[in-house]
Amino acid sequence: GVTPKIAPSMLSSDFANLASEAHRMLNYGADWLHMDIMDGHFVSNLTMGAPVIESLRKHTKAYLDCHLMVTNPLDYVEPFGKAGASGFTFHIETSKDNWKELIENIKSLGMRPGVAIKPGTSVEAVYPLVEAETPVEMVLVMTVEPGFGGQKFMPETMDKVRILRKKYPALDIEVDGGLGPSTIDMAALAGANCIVAGSSVFGAPEPAQVISLLRNSVEK
Ligand code: DX5
Ligand code: ZN
């Protein structure tokens, strides 16, 4: 469905206090917690793996929206399923040959499958995954080059969101990178409903106000 999901990116949180940071965001009105998994290979940054998800899961029942910026996502499906991940979003750039197997495995471990596309990847690449017998349930359109928080939103990526929304009225479409009060209207108007926001939420004096502003933009 196209209800708004506001997903603070825990990449911008204090990793040494991850559970309290998660509780803080949920109290501020977050729907999901976005977990950026980077392997130092698909992207140059290195963040967290399944053990961190397993530890956080012991402190919250929240939806853990895991975004896997890794070269071999299939290797991560079972560990993430067992750790308690809720959503498992892999990149099509790493998965052209095995996305069917990936989706099946993700679902069999009780997670919700999603596919992500980098700014340079064309939107047609995900059509077969959305239309498959066992489809992905979300498309993540990257609005920055994956790898780091705090980058500038790329408005040219909105064409992909518009095309997806027109073609798939009920699909969850997530945007990730550079989203905040000054860019949310572009994403919401294009048709995105799942909004990842790291630095704009964690850097705000009143994160709850930013979260409600993001939600209101998607709803209007
Ligand atoms: C970037 C990550 C994003 C990042 C967003 O590779 O996928 O989730 O944390 O951070 P901001 O909102 O600061 O651009
Ligand atoms: Zn992300």
TrEMBL record:
Catalytic site positions: 36 (proton acceptor), 176 (proton donor)
Any Pfam family the entry gives: Ribul_P_3_epim
Zinc keyword on record: yes
The keyword Lyase is annotated on this UniProt entry: no
GO MF assignments: D-ribulose-phosphate 3-epimerase activity; metal ion binding
Cofactor annotation: a divalent metal cation; Zn(2+); Mn(2+); Co(2+)
PROSITE patterns: RIBUL_P_3_EPIMER_1, RIBUL_P_3_EPIMER_2
GO biological process, one term: carbohydrate metabolic process
Ligand binding (substrate): 9, 67, 147-150, 178, 198-199
Entry keyword set: Carbohydrate metabolism, Cobalt, Isomerase, Manganese, Metal-binding, Zinc
Cofactor binding note: Binds 1 divalent metal cation per subunit.
Record-linked Gene3D superfamilies: Aldolase class I (3.20.20.70)
EC nos: 5.1.3.1
PANTHER family for the chain: RIBULOSE-5-PHOSPHATE-3-EPIMERASE
Protein name: Ribulose-phosphate 3-epimerase
Species per Swiss-Prot/TrEMBL record: Cicer arietinum
Lineage start: Eukaryota, Viridiplantae, Streptophyta, Embryophyta, Tracheophyta
